[in-house]
Amino acid sequence: MSNNSQVVLNAVLVNGLLAGPELDDEPFVVTNFPWIKLTRIDFVEPLNSREPKGPYMDFFTSVFATTSKSYGIISNSFYELEALYVEYCNRRESEPKSWCIGPISLAEPLKTKPPAKAHLATMARPKTNRG
Questions:
Q1: Phi first, then psi: what are they for 28, rounded to 5°?
Q2: What radius of gyration, in Å, describes the C-alpha atoms of the chain?
Q3: What stretch of H or E contains 13?
């Protein structure tokens, strides 16, 4: 989950914004980020339900409670891309800090070459004791 989606989802849930609009496609403004407008349709089931319940919601609630007690969240992003959201997350005392370690998908390929097939065949032969 990106820092953006984590912080925006938290703001929507904490402020009870999914309970407000009568229509599923009626836009609402995210309280902490007034330039962001969302609709109920933008959220997955059961979060977009007026009364979310079920096993997924139980799991989500458990993860949210456990995460709030942790020291931080590792995200596959980098600070310069999501500075506003990382700073917002990190300045809240009651929330875990965000630690950007990405982008992992752009990591360098291995610099060593895999062993040659002849070498693998030698490694696969069983050793015998002659004597």
A1: -135, 155
A2: 24
A3: helix 3-14
| DSSP summary character for residue 82 | S
Per-residue confidence (pLDDT) for residue 109, from 0 to 100: 67
Task: Report whether pLDDT(127) > 70.
Answer: no
Q: Is 25 exposed, middle or buried (0-12, 13-18, 19+ CB in 10 A)?
A: exposed
Which of the four pLDDT bands, split at 50, 70 and 90, describes residue 84? very high
Calpha distance 113→88 (Å, rounded): 43
Count the Cβ atoms, other than its own, within 10 Å of residue 114: 8
Q: Name the residue type at position 66.
A: T
Tens-digit pLDDT profile for residues 3-53: 888 889 888 888 888 887 678 889 999 988 999 999 999 988 888 887 788
Q: Count the neighbouring beta carbons within 10 Å of the beta carbon of residue 85.
A: 21
Helix spans in 30-116 (H): 55-68, 83-91
N- to C-terminal Cα distance for the chain? 62
